[in-house]
Amino acid sequence: MAIPRSILVYSNTDFLRQKIVDAINNHSKLQVTHTASSVQQVLNLLNKEIHVIVIANECADSILELVHRIINIRPVPILLLPIGKKPEDLRETNYGVVDIFPIEVDNIEDLKHLSISALVPIKTMILSKLNLDKFQFQISQIKSGQYFSTTSEFDRKVGEEGIKIQELYNKLDDLSDKPLSKGKSDIVRTVKPSQYINRLLIIGSSSGGPKMLTYLISQFPADFCPVLVVQHMPEGDYIDSLAERINKFSAINVKKAEQGDSILPGNVYFAPSDRHMKVNFARSKMNVNLVKSPPVNFVIPSVDVTLQSVAKYYGHSSVSLIITGMGHDGTEGSREIKQYGGKVFALNKEDSVVYGMNRSVIEAGLVDKILDLDSIVPALKKEMYS
Fold first, then answer.
1. N or C: which end of the chain has fewer CB within 10 A?
2. 0.85 surpassed by pTM
């Protein structure tokens, strides 16, 4: 019998800490072996065998500093359960060794009646399986303090050469929330008549997706075909924040999808976290149709819902790309894309943060190309141009 993964839970509120402990211990492959009620206790326990640290605090201002201190002493995957912290402040979500699931309450007393989501142990389990060797570059940058600098200028290299993934990972936190200045570093977003007319790309991802999406979308040319992105994220403003961040250093326009948006070249549309994203044809053009309906594959938005809607309208002009995440969302939708003559691409196992969604579509025999991370954009450009 496999030994359960060892978990450390830290919260400065006793009843919240116990609720999290109980939720995690209900998972047969996880066991809370250590708890902490202070930062110093967390640091003192880092010499123990711990596979994941779960942090839930009402006072969230020092979370980034704590993440920094933990990884400096001993790199350990971390699940953050922030309480009352705005998503645009969560710079720690840029790190592949850190995941987040917010606890939304109006006041501290509400925590006493809180039921911990089943997603908390699921996300903890995913983190416990991470191969930290994949994140050595990020870890080295955190240790050197470069992830916490806000003074260096981001070199926006967009085009055929793209942005090297290590450079991008290193520079993500240097992006300010200020609008792009008018100057030499500005990215021109003028969309000329597109060579990608009547093509549509749909990207599906979950755990580990935001950083990969940033890397991929930053390389799309300004006139690239329209792109629909279904990224599993918690409800709230997280999708808005992610889209805004990616938009800051992409030639293509990136936004959260809104009901009735025209699907046009030069645009990336992120599905909101509380709606399924479909497409429809109205007033002589293709449009985004956001639908409030039950979860599919236990998630909203679902990649399958988007792909199944797209397949019927775009047929052979559609391409499905499944990159990373737990589960099998995207498999049945990709099957329909294939049935209608479209193409299906998937990220390979070696470059995946979580080899789940892409594994499912690969093992179903639906994939036309299995690609490493650096080969995806060149392959997409070639496919869309043909």
1. N
2. no
Please, what are the domains in the chain? 5-130 (3.40.50.2300), 192-385 (3.40.50.180)
Looking at residue 209, its amino acid is: G
Q: Residues 32-57: pLDDT tens digits?
A: 999 999 889 999 999 999 999 999 87
Instruction: Quote the DSSP letter at residue 290.
Output: E
Q: Name the β-bridge partners of 203.
A: 229, 321
* Angular region, 235: left φ>0, alpha ψ -120 to 50, beta rest: beta
User: How far is the CA of 373 from the CAs of 167, 203, 219, 228, 377, in angstroms?
Assistant: 15, 13, 12, 19, 8
From residue 96, give the alpha-carbon distance in Å to each of 11, 75, 197.
22, 12, 35
Residue 88 pLDDT > 50, yes or no? no
Q: Give the H or E element holding residue 55.
A: strand 52-55
Q: Mind telling me the catalytic residues?
A: 206, 232, 329
According to the model, what pLDDT value does residue 137 have?
Answer: 63
Read off the amino acid at residue 231: Q
DSSP state of 94: G
Tokens of 200: 């549509």
> Can you tell me which residue has the tokens 């809104």?
258
